[in-house]
Amino acid sequence: MDNGETPPAEMCSLREVLDLVGDKWAIRVLVQLGSGPRRFSELERALDGVSRRMLSLTLRGLERNGLVTRKIYPEVPPRVEYTMTPHAAELDEPLHALSAWAAKHRAKVGAARQAYDGVTA
Q: If I label 19, which of 55, 71, 75, 87 is the partner at 20 to 30 A Cα–Cα?
């Protein structure tokens, strides 16, 4: 295409993009990176319950999709930092709002589950 548009074969579907940013670990990684660059070990400590493998896969996926950049410093041992890209930074406010909503309503969600499970059991 000569009008500067991305050819359709290279575009992601809306579902693919929403699946990417809707992933449990991706959201939590992006929230952590919203306050600045982080090393792998810092992310691992901050994300309770994530395995090294899942964190590695999540970071690789975010990097592949242009939401995170990885910078390797030529040190011994090598130091690697992850940072949100500028367009991923646009997600910072909505992700924090979503996280705040989840924290505010988690007791209500838990109570609703318990009530539903009691009725349908």
A: 71
Give me the sign of the Cα torsion angle 111, 97, 90, 70: negative
Q: Hey, is 68 helix, strand or coil?
A: strand
Q: What is the pLDDT confidence band of residue 13, given thresholds at 50, 70 and 90? A: confident
Give the residue carrying structure tokens 């406010």: 93
CA-CA distances (angstroms) from residue 96 to 29, 41, 85, 91? Answer: 12, 22, 17, 8
Q: Among residues 79, 74, 88, which one has the least CA distance to residue 20?
A: 88
Average pLDDT over residues 31-50: 95
pTM higher than 0.85, yes or no?
A: no
